[in-house]
Amino acid sequence: MSKAVLEIFPKVFLAEKKQTIYAKLDGVCAQDAVMIKVQPMERYAIKHTELYRIDEETRYSYAEMTSLGDGVYSFEYAFFDEQKYDVQIRIDGELLLRTRIYSIKEDLAVLQAYKGDTHLHTCRSD
Questions:
Q1: CA torsion angle for 27, 28, 30, 35 (degrees, to 10)?
Q2: Averages of pLDDT over each 10 residues, the chain, 126 residues
Q3: Would you list the DSSP string of the chain?
Q4: 23, 40, 44, 91: least surrounded by Cβ within 10 Å?
Q5: Cα separation, 61 vs 37, whole angstroms
Q6: In what order do the strands lie in the sheet containing 66-69?
């Protein structure tokens, strides 16, 4: 049976707070090593200078996710700033997911989100 990451949730977290990332996996056995890496993409927790240059792939290490049963895994992470984060999930060393999640501060989180198309064309437009 092939292994797959079906979903990672939520996609947006509160910044400056420790929270739980969940992943719904398929085809994973109890003995499989499910690992996650969360890497800030804009403001780093580790110094980023020529003197302390670190390869981006090894800058942040993988950590083991906790099985909650029924193919759901969790991992606690402290989002230290409002920004985009790269998330990678490996199962037995194989990279199965690379995606982005976001953290926002409280002032943005309390706003009402609106959804709409701000650019569109009609049959009469050029």
A1: 180
A2: 90 95 94 94 66 66 94 95 94 94 93 80 78
A3: ---EEEEEE-SEEETTEEEEEEEEEES--TTS-EEEEEEESSS-SS--SSTT---TTTSS--EEPEEEETTEEEEEEEE-SSEEEEEEEEETTEEEEEEEEEEE-HHHHTSPP----SS---TT--
A4: 44
A5: 6
A6: 4-9, 17-26, 72-79, 66-69
